[in-house]
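Now for today's protein.

===
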Amino acid sequence: MVAIARAVVIRDGIPDSRYLAPASEFPPLADLPIEGHGTLIARQWVVTAAHAVHEHHPDRVTINGKPRAVAGTVIHPGFEGVPTPAVMAGDAAPLMRELRGMLDIALLQLVAPVEDTQPAELYRANDEVGKRVTLYGKGATGTGASGEEPTSPHRGLLRRAYNRVSSAERQWLTYVFDCSSQAPLLEGVIGSGDSGGPVLIDANGSQKLAGITSWRSWRGDLKDIRRGVCGQRFYCSRVSHYADWIDHVVMR
């Protein structure tokens, strides 16, 4: 039996239906082909994670239910690729060090401006710590008690969850799957297939893009990794860190 992906890993004991979100809730969400996301930030530009597009540059994305042709991909010049195969097995510590060194951001230029969807604004302030964030994704699902369901597809229904920024340092924002009574009621974290998706902060009544979904941490042997379990830390490319680079590319 194939599991139906409802996306985003949620708290145990809370009905799935409370996490489901209509596409109209965040129209700037962009779907990459097959899996992964981005966010429309200007009429002709989508921002996403570099690791999601550096090998297979997408020829299209879907925004507001419509396919949009991609003219080109601009990878951040500091992105050196995904971690080397030598650190992809055994103790997780070397892999975690390589991931922390990534500059994981890219921009997709669209062939034609998007006129039917308002782009998301960038969150440019450096005061992210402690703020509640909203996450969107269509990737793998599960609960914090057991992690992602192994058979969960990486492209399914749109879900929305909340969390809180625990740290903001250099190029990374982080949040933790707390699973405690102190966490937001509809707390959740991203699942496999949600790379490049939006992490939003509410500012003056509008949702602004503060982070771009990138990776999650693990301690111990990589063969024992559990994705999306309580206590796990999640890393997002910090938009305020990259705002000048984004402006330079978009406005050149």
Notes: The first helix runs from residue 93 to 100. The two ends are 50 Å apart (CA to CA). The chain has one domain: 8-251.
